[in-house]
Automatic annotation (TrEMBL):
EC nos: 5.1.3.13
Alphabetical GO biological process terms: dTDP-rhamnose biosynthetic process; polysaccharide biosynthetic process
Name assigned to this protein: dTDP-4-dehydrorhamnose 3,5-epimerase
Coiled-coil regions, chain positions: none
Length: 188
């Protein structure tokens, strides 16, 4: 497994090895042992899988608040998407900053989005599937959002608000400036 840092120190790109042959490829898409060898021992308890029919579908930015905050390990099962993580930890040197990484079925890349980050993505192809592991169960009372196109975030989604396909709740999510303090940064 290959690990690449991003501009946000706790957000990491992981690329598991692929073994290709005349049939296609084989890959360990997640191995607890391989991650632990890199100091990432995460206790995943739920896998999520969603399909977005059209390119230009935006889901996010989402997070669960404590005590049900989630680390997420995100990959693309079909198609391609731009995956985004935003640091929402108050006191963090990178508060409000984001990384955006293209994940596709072809490139096999995964993004580790830790607790304290809002997560979202835009699909770059029709019929795109995202699959992600989470370290806590779905807790509707702790489900929270941040406005995907908040100008304060400066995320280049590659599409306008008119063209984006969004859920009703994502259209009205709060701006960063209006978010309560859910997470505080603890220097390591
Ligand atoms: C997130 C989630 C939703 N649901 C249900 C609630 C609802 O009826 C339906 C659709 O939920 P949503 O509209 O929130 O789905 P979606 O917009 O795809 O939400 C997801 O977006 C990405 C960006 C994330 O990071 C995820 O954590 C999650 O928030 O699925 C569950 O049963 N379990 C879950 O874990």
């Amino acid at each position: 497994m290959h690990l690449e840092p991003t501009l946000l120190p706790d957000v990491i790109i992981l690329t598991p090895a692929r073994f290709g042959d005349h049939r296609g490829f084989f890959s360990e898409s997640w191995s607890r042992r391989a991650m632990a060898e890199h100091g990432l021992d995460l206790d995943f308890v739920q896998d999520n899988h969603s399909l977005s029919a059209a390119a230009g579908t935006v889901r996010g930015l989402h997070f669960q608040t404590p005590p049900h905050a989630q680390d997420k390990l995100v990959r693309c099962g079909r198609g391609a998407l731009l995956d985004v993580a935003v640091d929402i930890r108050h006191g963090s040197p990178t508060f409000g900053r984001h990384v955006a990484v293209e994940l596709s079925a072809e490139n096999g890349r995964q993004l580790l989005v830790p607790k304290g980050f809002a997560h979202g993505f835009v699909t770059l192809q029709p019929e795109t599937e995202i699959i992600y592991k989470c370290t806590d169960y779905y807790a509707p009372d702790c489900d929270a959002g941040l406005r995907w196109n908040d100008p304060a975030l400066g995320i280049e989604w590659g599409l306008s608000a008119l063209d984006a396909i969004l859920s009703d709740k994502d259209q009205t999510a709060p701006l960063l400036a209006d978010l309560p303090v859910y997470f505080t940064y603890a220097a390591q």
